[in-house]
Each structure stands twice: as C-alpha cells, then as structure tokens.
Amino acid sequence: MGSGKNHDDFRSGNCVCEVVRAIKEIQDNAVEDECVECSSCFTEPLGTLVSPARREPVDTRVFILSTADGSPFHAFLTNESNACVSIFFRVEEVFDNCCATLRVLVPGRREGGNFHAVNLVSSGDKCCIDLTKVCQVERFRASNDCITVDLSCFCSVQCVADVNLGLCN
Predict the structure, then answer these.
(1) 104 is in which domain, residue-wise?
(2) Closest among 55, 54, 60, 65 to 14, alpha carbons compared
(3) pTM (2 decimals)?
(4) Residues 37, 1: contact at Cβ < 8 Å?
(5) pLDDT-derived band of residue 126, with 50, 70 and 90 as boundaries?
C-alpha cells in the first residue's frame, strides 16, 4: 500500500517537508477499512498506527518535530490550566513549498476515565521539556492554538499515533 510516490526521491531537498505533506494527504484521504502492519509516517491509510484491537475512526496522525540538536520542538498552549507547552502536533495545512500550519495538541493521560493534561515542563528548569513526562502521555486533545512553521528548519519527524480528535476537514 502506498501513495505511489517514491519516498526516497525528496525533490524539495527536505525530507521533513515531504513527510508532513504526506501526513496531511493521508489525513485528508482517511479510509477506515484498510490495514497495514508497517509503522511509519508514510503508512497508509490513516488509522494504521492505531492498535489493531481498536477500530474507531481516526482523523489525525500525531507527530513530533526535532530541532538540529535532537531536542523536541515545542509550542505554547493558551487557555490550558495544567499544561503550558506541547511537543505534539497535527498538520492543518502545507503551503509555499515548505511551510505548514500546525495545531498544537494537548498531551494527556487517562485518570478515572477522564482526560488529564500532562505538564511536560521540567519542574526544576522551566525552559526545558522533561522527557520522562513525555512517556506519561497516552492521549491527545485538540487545542485552539495553531502555529506556522518553516519545515525546512527541522531535522526529523516522528509519527506517534493515529487518533480521533473529532476535527472537521
């Protein structure tokens, strides 16, 4: 299964641009009935990063971007009481060859059946992401915060999960 594209041929010169563009295309063309066992950002259709036992519709491929030094890129959340930054994103639009609008996703975990936001900021150093807290994240919620980024500024992209955020295309 695939989009028919040769993913080894990154004509734009930036693989992060191509991966995010592919994620957007996969989100836009979500098909519920197909299954693929490969775990990759290029895996189609949307929903194949979800556990096979879970068969609910999905509308988002959650991903993380990394900077040149390998640290996760983060964006600020507004109107969130328990979390102020996130490293998790949903692509909303790709434009001008290598720019994108990303929705910042609220990282969370399940507590008593409810969504509880996870604060990813290190308690001792308020400017850094605590990577041990990243491991606590098991759920995501859409925020109203979107950012525009130049994808050519990033060195890597890692797809995390396919989830249903209940967003309209």
Answers:
(1) 15-163
(2) 65
(3) 0.80
(4) no
(5) low
